[in-house]
Amino acid sequence: MAFVIGMQVISAFLVALIALLFGRSAALSAVIGAVVALLPNIVFALYLKFNGKPSVVRLMLGEAVKLALIFALSFFVWRRIDFTVQALPYWVALVVVLKAHNFGLLRATH
Asked: pLDDT (tens digit, 9 = 90+) per residue, 65-93?
């Protein structure tokens, strides 16, 4: 699990670095999008780690909570932060971080 979270952190850093080429505002928007994706993923990873035996119901419940947190944090960012968030870097960072867990499949398990 730490490998997957690590891949997401690396992806967030790379997206923010690329966004920095387009200005500080774009980079900050990318960082905000990455954090919005990372926090619920960390909560979900901790939920899976400290939960009892695995089950489909617990997995789906964890995913539902993760999505609810992402929606709530996104709402907070777009409505409450006193900063004009640039949409493209924000959403690119959010999607890249959410999909970075797929790189965990590249890790050999044997």
From this structure: 999 999 999 999 988 887 889 999 999 99
Distance CA 62, CA 46 (A): 10
Query: How far apart are the C-alpha atoms of 83 and 110, rounded to whole Å?
Result: 47
The closest alpha carbon to 26, from 90, 74, 82, 79, belongs to 90
Q: How many domains does the chain have?
A: 1
Structural domain boundaries, residue 40: 2-106
d(CA 15, CA 89) in angstroms, rounded, equals 8
For residue 29, give every residue at least 6 positions away whose Cβ sits within 8 Å of its Cβ, in sequence order, or none: 19, 85, 86, 87, 89, 90, 93
Burial of 84 (0-12, 13-18, 19+ CB in 10 A): exposed
Could you report how far apart the first and last alpha carbons of the chain are, in Å?
16
